[in-house]
Amino acid sequence: MANTSIEAADYYGTNGTKATKAVLTxxxxxxxxxxxxxxxxxxxxxxxxxxxxxxxxxxxxxxxGSQLDPTDVVGIPYPSQHHDYTNYLRPVWQHRCLDGxxxxxxxxxxxxxxxxxxxxxxxxxxxxxxxxxxxxxDDVCIVGAMNPEDSAASYERISAPMCNRLMFxxxxxxxxxxxxxxxxxxxxxxxxxxxxxxxxRKLVVDFLRTQPQLIHKEPRDGTAHLGPTAQDVYTNGxxxxxxxxxxxxRLAWPSPRSWENLCRVLAGTGNPGRELAPLQRRITTGMxxxxxxxxxxxxxxxxxxxxxxxxxxxxxxxxxxLAQATSATETTEFASRIIRAIPECNGRGGRPTPEAALxxxxxxxxxxxxxxxxxxxxxxxxxxxSLRALEKELATREEKSAWxxxxxxxxxxxxxxxxxxxxxxxxxxxx
Length: 431
Fold this sequence. Notes:
Layout: H1 8-11, H2 17-29, E1 34-37, H3 44-54, E2 61-64, H4 71-74, E3 76-79, E4 86-89, H5 92-97, E5 103-108, H6 115-127, E6 140-146, H7 160-163, E7 167-170, H8 175-185, H9 195-210, H10 230-236, H11 243-251, H12 256-266, H13 278-288, H14 290-303, H15 308-313, H16 331-341, H17 354-362, H18 364-367, H19 370-373, H20 382-389, H21 397-416
Parallel strand pairs: 1-6, 1-7, 2-5, 5-6
Antiparallel strand pairs: 3-4
């Protein structure tokens, strides 16, 4: 198991993902079991899984507390060959702990573990020994996860002796950690994701930056929201007798988990448009709630662009001139979305070609968009670096030479327009 030292000063007063992993590492080195505590959907399981791989332990050995009974801990008794004593058939998860490799033994839904099972776990957690006395190897660490009592599915109070053997750790990822995770930080196969899913993930992150209170909005009673409001009924055309639709609205609510799941499903409906299509609205309502569906749809209508690839392909459909901008909200985000999309303009999977990306910026002097993109098209700006990197997509030496000449001409044209890197970025709107 990896040995990673931490500096307490770097993490003091935080309970986000980075700090949590640091504490888990320190506790693992000291052979102290840790239980993460946070609201449902916060990403406890995903964080433990990611940390387990980072520690060189592979996929955690997951034991779900609510599914256990005492024999799943102690084992099933059976007589010896001569019937003079009793042996126990060890559960498969215990066999895996003893296979000679480093492991993370992960007790999920720990607060749902029945009291009778908790008693059997005391020896494993407190003494690191199984019921037959076999010692748990030192390269196996014990972690768990649980929800607070008011949001647990079937809460079982943890006994005082058990509590005294554990370290409880509050877990609450920061908004930035969630945004970074959604756009590649916790997605191991980001490069191979469908372009549609990437577009939805980036859109959802851009939206939630403007509405961070919707990242997690757990129902007040811990089970479901109240029924739809009169405005919900009017906006979404819900009939007064449509009991099924009202139940959907009552039950769905947003969390980091539900937002990520939403992006996976919406990827199957194609790229984002300038509003939520009826099917996309139903999906969003059913996974994150009607408030999120309404706000996301409104966001698309207000910004008039959700897929930066559309703007790259059709720059003439949008207003780029600072003097014609009608809103100062979300100023940096719009230009940043375009810039972040440039590295993906390789012409594969329905993405724009490198030619479309360069042509987009070549159109900016005439469209009055130089002040908007000047910070990114300077010699070492993010946009210019991405355009240079696209040269590798070109096939011939002649194409690459022409590409370099056009980049030099692009830089010159931006300078001639008098654009400065201090220009304020506006939100643009479709014509």
